[in-house]
Amino acid sequence: MYMDKLSTQPTKGFHDIYPEDMRVRQWLFGKMRETAMLFGFEEYDGPILEPIEIYAAKSGEELVKQQTFLLTDRGGRQVALRPELTPTLARMVACKKNQLTYPLRWFSIGPRFRYEAPQKGRAREFYQFDCDLVGPTTPESDAEIIALAATFFKNLGLTPDDVVIKINSRKMLQHKLSLLDIPSSKTNEVIHAIDKKDKMSEDKWIEYLKTEDLSDDQIKNLLKIMGDRDVSFESDELTNVFSTLKDLGVSEYVEFDPSIVRGLEYYTGTVFEARDKKGQFRALLGGGRYDNLVELFSKESLSGIGFACGDMVLLEMLSSHDLLPNTKSLSSHTSRILVTVFNESTVRASLKLIRTLRDEHIPSELYPDFAVRLDKQIKYADKKGIEFVVIIGPDEMKNDTLTLKNLKTGEQKTITFHELLSLVQ
Amino acid sequence: MYMDKLSTQPTKGFHDIYPEDMRVRQWLFGKMRETAMLFGFEEYDGPILEPIEIYAAKSGEELVKQQTFLLTDRGGRQVALRPELTPTLARMVACKKNQLTYPLRWFSIGPRFRYEAPQKGRAREFYQFDCDLVGPTTPESDAEIIALAATFFKNLGLTPDDVVIKINSRKMLQHKLSLLDIPSSKTNEVIHAIDKKDKMSEDKWIEYLKTEDLSDDQIKNLLKIMGDRDVSFESDELTNVFSTLKDLGVSEYVEFDPSIVRGLEYYTGTVFEARDKKGQFRALLGGGRYDNLVELFSKESLSGIGFACGDMVLLEMLSSHDLLPNTKSLSSHTSRILVTVFNESTVRASLKLIRTLRDEHIPSELYPDFAVRLDKQIKYADKKGIEFVVIIGPDEMKNDTLTLKNLKTGEQKTITFHELLSLVQ
Fold first, then answer.
1. B351 and B304: one domain?
2. Nearest residue, CB atoms, B248 vs list A47, A248, A351
3. pTM
């Protein structure tokens, strides 16, 4: 019977991570963990499926209605593949609200899912690095989170010439809008419009503001605010955030930008996003302060500040700056030693060597097929980037020695087991 | 307006991983990575969503029809949350079949999803450790995979008194069944029946076999095979696997068991599963050889052997044997130093100390709120398990010193910054 073969492609917008790409991913996740832990953050994780309600209220209409993978489970519950982690954080914090020790410094690294059109730097399944500091509402906590983001870039090799973290205050912006007689019922629409500003020309933006029923005067003043780099000094809070960032040593990575608002509706105070200086990529990370993290779940209130950083744009950026590691050079990506098998009569000697090497915690592998010719076994080691090859033939067995081939230098010598150990340990 | 608050509970069968549990999970994943890499295995990962077709043919009817989370994406594609990883591995290997270097030694650690009734040791979202060796069909490759599993238990502190890996050969079993005149069309049903053997009494099992239309004679002989611990010597292959396992130093962890078949239909050769010796838990891991990994995707053929190990039963087992680490003792679970803030006038000195400590790669955190009393700041450090607290008050600022409190010993002394560094580096 003839059977059609299935496609070997992953689902659209999803990616296979082969070992070579995995090494890069693990290197990146390592930098995330290292930086978060340097700032005293602890790792947590939540479910990949969440009840749809926890996104419906706050995550922004577009995200929930158009970009979420929804399913109805066999119990009739409407659930979603998490498009972001903050609602999960909120639920988890609310659940143990009175048992947790504040300030919380929590981070997480994991997959998120958005039903968007796949394109360069955007996929339907991607990874995000989330950091949140929950409890205090001080400028020092804002600065700690932003300094963590800056230090993360620094640890990746990105300099202040490459990236900038643009900072603004929603509170200050809202105050400014109220001074323009924009009613508070309209604030969200205007903030949404500001969020779209850098996606269109100034003329187009002005037209867009007119469709939002802003007067010519209001538009003129709004443009003035957007261009005023000194307006931050009118906010004590922002002034404190910037001076704290200076004391934390990251002032070169940050600047005030009155047009930064971040799309998500739950931000209420300081907001920030990181951009590449050349403007080639979408935002590298974004975040801000939310006045009440747990309001969907609890009558009590709890403030926090955090950011999320996706892996896709960041990897594009690092690649374009030649900052990705050579995956062959990444430590422990493969065995240190391949123990070949000469023929059936030498198998046991090879097995015993493998056993001893592993007892000594030296990553090593046996070539598991003596029907394969020795030169092909060695070629395998070379392709995989294994540094040392050991050959135990009948002569070596007789003399209780082994032949060591260094595939980097091509050097080959006959040595004892103890010499091998002192060489690789 | 009164608003009902949402539940803080995760979706049924899903778990929140708070930092304390995350430390245990990361410790366990670390042991998985460490062991796999000791055997020269490379990490990979696939998508969490896969086309339903890749499970439909091989994963066993129960798994696909009753236990899979299915959804139809907005493009009309039927996709599933992966219940297991082997079909993804098959797809990925088939996709790059001619570019990959064999033998492949690949492992993966990630979430899987099964719609089962949640109970102790079983959840709808859980993690699995998958190891596969693809290419050769030799007893040495079977032994490498089983030795990896045994070494994993050893690295977790589980001894041969605690766990046993039971090994059988499907090929030998099928041969034995054919000798009983069981037609090959019926082999799968009988193998399925053998898989259920240890879930019922012998009487019940005999009744069950009768409903499968086996004759009294066939049943008698089948029982004899199931009780015969020496039948393994009839298979050269199994004999070689066991002698290789002995040379690899793990013979104490393994035994032959003719009743092990593993449920999944794609196994064709050696099969194995790990059990706790007291029989308290379900299988700790299971796996086997599949003759043609890529047959759904390719006309060419490729054999492999692998296992999957879930986190839930393993954690139960480790907990019952008191082998889980004390999470407070796990290295780098929190900052080494809390830098407190005495009052507004000393904030800058605290910030600068934090900056310098982090420049020296010492995980440390600032207490980000000087409105909080010093004793409460110290209590926070104590609760979080932070070892050192630094206080910089007006006196310390004047004398360019700092006060260091060791929360483990209670000792408190005034030292210089350089003394602090040499203490914690």
1. no
2. A351
3. 0.94
